[in-house]
Amino acid sequence: MYTYEKKEKEGQLKVTISKEEWEKAVEKAYQNTKGKYNVQGFRKGKAPRRVIEQTYGDTVFFDDAFEEVISNEYSKFLLENSEVKPAESPRVEMNSFTIDKGIEATLTFALMPEVTLASLTGLKAKVKPAKVDEKAISAEIERFREAHARYEESEDKVNNGDFATIDFSGSVDGVKFEGGTAKDYRLEIGSHTFIEGFEEQIVGLKKGESKDINVTFPASYQAEELAGKPAVFAITVNKVERKILPNIDDKFISDTTEFETLDEYKASVKDTLEKRASEQAEKDYEMALIEEIVENSKVEIPHSMTHHEVHHILHDFEHRLAHQGMTLKAYLEYIGKSEEEFEEERMPDAEKNVKTRLVLQKIIEENKLQVSEEELDKEISAYADQFKVKLDDIKASLSPDDIAYFENQALMNKLVVFIKDKNKKA
Prior knowledge:
alpha+beta; 46% helix; Alpha-Beta Plaits; Trigger factor, domain 2
């Protein structure tokens, strides 16, 4: 049984669980978890409930049973009161508990805030001209040239830009450390792949020459036992290779592309860059439209929603750091900030993220935007085409979470088109 009361921006649900309901929940908890208890004289999972309670204490099943009854009652409440929209998981407080009377508890949760939408028409955002200059075209051609570079072994001294194949063995205080030794490692000098100061000390060496290189690990280095410590790397140069770039002329273009002349290739590059710039300009315009609506809409965001979002931002950042071989702790030490200070700095971003989601959801609800089966298939087809896979094969492999992702993408695309249509130029 429950009673509900709205208190300003919060909902308060008072739940009463009878003695009979509680007993059923405890029995269910026993049946679900009895296999994990070891009781002398009984095979695992065969000990009677009372024996487990005598061995592990009368409250051994309390947490599981409590979670079961509260979760069931909360789900029932939400099903029967669809107009109530919690913004977070409830905070649960047990008011009383007795064997004879059962449980009384209070669930408190922030409610989804009211959103007052700004006008979706007459927006000031404009499509910016997509310009491609000669500098951009030259840079793209230079990247193509770099991709077709060849490498010739050289007997000369190592210069910046050369590739040196080296053996190295690193030590700190005379002791070799894990991961500090390698054979025939091919290193581009000037790429800043290694610790600062390492590559510069190879410049001037020749094939067959050896040298001790002195460096200091950064204070933020991922291996904490090495962070900030001086190290010595004994290296030997096994090979020196010099990069040879091709001449960009008609012959090179006809040999490496479908075009016959450099002018034809340049025209193609320009066309590609202009198309890319145009697509980016359109995306920037779409984002500007959304940002304008969000900025001019009004919504009072509960602190709990912002707090939850900033934790999500922090977790995502920590995950990306891990891919770069760095821990969040090391990063924060490097920038000289505490986790609390880092979170506080991200609060404006978190608030903007939450407000954007609430505003877009309001637009979707007010305008009853939905994704049809055909629109969903179109979204999945674009993904299938990208990986050259049949649509039916992709659809057969999708999990419910995958489908939800594509539905959301299709819905966001539909939302953007809806807003753009309302702001078409006369």
